[in-house]
Amino acid sequence: MYFVIYKSSDSKYYFAIKSDNHEIVATSETYLTKWSAEKTIGSIKSGIASDSFVVDMTE
Predict the structure, then answer these.
(1) Is 5 exposed, middle or buried (0-12, 13-18, 19+ CB in 10 A)?
(2) Beta strand pairing status for 13-18 and 24-27?
(3) Backbone angles phi, psi at 47, to 5 degrees
(4) For position 13, what pLDDT does the model report?
(5) H-type helices in the chain, by residue range?
(6) CATH C-level class of 2-56
(7) What does the DSSP 8-state code read for residue 51?
């Protein structure tokens, strides 16, 4: 499992949780800041998936 951060057309951020076969498992709500999305990812990682990685598609 891994996370991919995206920037929407209205300049908000959201992330998708993807399985090891690259299929989307879940998509988050939108966040005003990238930091907020990253903080939520951190919470999820510490709770259930500490070995997962993050792909930043916003840059």
Answers:
(1) buried
(2) antiparallel
(3) -85, -40
(4) 98
(5) 34-47
(6) alpha beta
(7) T
Length of the chain: 59
Cβ neighbours for 38, distance < 8 A, ≥ 6 positions apart? 5, 54
- pLDDT the model gives residue 55: 81
pLDDT per position as a tens digit, 3-58: 999 999 999 999 999 998 999 999 999 999 999 999 999 988 887 766 777 788 88
Domain residue spans in the chain? 2-56
Q: CB within 8 A of 9, min separation 6: which ones?
A: none
Q: How far is CA 9 from CA 18, 19, 40, 57, 58, in A?
A: 21, 25, 21, 13, 11
